[in-house]
Design goal:
Blueprint: E1 7-10, H1 21-34, H2 42-79, E2 84-86, E3 114-117, E4 122-124, H3 125-130, E5 142-146, H4 148-156, E6 158-160, E7 171-173, H5 177-183, E8 189-190, E9 199-200, H6 202-212, E10 217-219, E11 225-231, E12 237-241, E13 247-255, E14 259-267, E15 276-283, E16 290-296, E17 298-300, E18 313-316, E19 324-333
Parallel strand pairs: 1-2, 10-12, 14-17
Antiparallel strand pairs: 3-4, 3-5, 6-7, 8-9, 11-19, 12-13, 13-14, 14-18, 15-16, 15-19
Helix pairs in contact: 1-2
Protein name: RING-type E3 ubiquitin transferase
EC number: 2.3.2.27
Pfam family, one: Sina_ZnF
Length: 337
């Protein structure tokens, strides 16, 4: 069965470069110089030859640059999902509009079984049920005939991960793309410093933050307690940077009438819940009382201003100094099982 791909790289063969008219004229001048058609001394002839050769090399260099730029543009289109197939061995280059692989009703990717009416209009099985077996285009009955040809195409299509531009090289089945995208280690993470807006993989974000925002963060070591203080009303979060470059946010959900809810999340492409635990400790002024929280670190690719509502350390307003919160923090790296 033929296999389709929407991520290919085009033909691998390279065409022989043609010498342009300017290059041919330059070579003719070289021959004329060599045959003595010009009454120049030997040094002048050598200089002329060198200039002409340089012109030829520049001409060929420009042609090569144009070819490379054209190839780069094609690769960018492929990464953006234009849908080119590979040309590898006996495979055929295919360009396909991925919209035809989606149900026209729910706009979700087709999955077998695919239903069609007698006029060939196709919908996915869930939509066929919701339409009560009536074609939305021609009102004919639908659901008794399967579109086997389209099912075979769907099963054969291979695509590149949508995070290819961020470094993911995975080629996956069109049917299983959603599963991979949810766990892809190259999902883009957004820089938490406003209004930066940088997006990249966890590793790229770490490098970006180290170069541009490191003075806005608190550095720490895993398994060691460290001290953080911040303004209770002005700081929605404090950025914490681990020794491996991972970014954590100490969130401060402040309610001026009641207190603050503190928690920690990790900005990461991966699910770090089983990898890190954190402890928060806030002492009550003038007493021996201490508020503590121990929890697993939740991860997200972007903090959108939403605070955790299930796990947090609530610090009542009476337990704080007027404008500052003083927190003892410890982030522990869990050992693999």
């Amino acid at each position: 069965m033929a296999r389709f791909s929407v991520d290919g790289a085009g033909s691998t063969g390279r065409k022989r470069k043609k010498i342009s008219g300017a290059a041919e004229e330059s070579q003719s001048m070289i021959r004329d110089l060599t045959n003595g058609n010009h009454s120049q001394n030997q040094d002048g002839m050598v200089e002329s030859e060198e200039r002409v050769v340089e012109e030829v090399e520049n001409e060929e260099g420009q042609e090569q640059e144009q070819e490379e730029e054209s190839q780069e543009e094609e690769e960018e289109k492929i990464e953006e999902g234009d849908g080119f197939g590979t040309s590898n061995g006996s495979q055929t280059v295919v360009k396909i509009d991925t919209d035809v692989l989606d149900c026209p009703i729910c706009c979700e990717p087709f999955r077998p079984p695919i239903c069609q009416c007698q006029n060939g209009h196709a919908v996915c099985s869930p939509c066929c049920i919701s339409l009560f077996g009536k074609c939305p285009v021609c009102s004919q009955g639908i659901g008794l005939i399967r579109c086997l040809a389209l099912e075979r195409i769907i099963e054969s299509v291979q695509i590149r991960c949508i995070n290819a531009r961020y470094g993911c090289n995975t080629t996956l089945s069109y049917l299983h793309q959603d599963t991979h995208h949810k766990i892809c280690d190259y999902r883009p993470c957004t820089c938490p410093i406003s209004p930066c807006g940088f997006k990249g993989s966890s590793k790229s974000l770490s490098h970006h933050f180290q170069r541009n925002h490191i003075n806005s963060a608190v550095k720490f070591r895993y398994d060691y307690c460290f001290y953080v203080t911040f303004n209770r009303t002005e700081n929605p979060f404090v950025v914490l940077v681990g020794p491996d470059g991972r970014l954590f946010l100490l969130l401060n959900n402040n309610d001026t009438t009641r207190g603050s809810a503190l928690s920690i999340i990790c900005i990461s492409s991966c699910n770090e819940k089983s990898n890190f635990q954190y402890e928060l400790s806030v002492g009550v002024p003038m007493t021996q009382t201490t508020l503590k929280l121990k929890a697993s670190v939740e991860s997200t690719t972007e903090w959108k201003g939403v605070y955790p509502t299930d796990i947090f350390l609530f610090v009542p307003i009476d337990f704080r100094s007027p404008n500052r919160i003083f927190v003892d923090v410890s982030i522990k790296k869990c050992k693999p099982h």
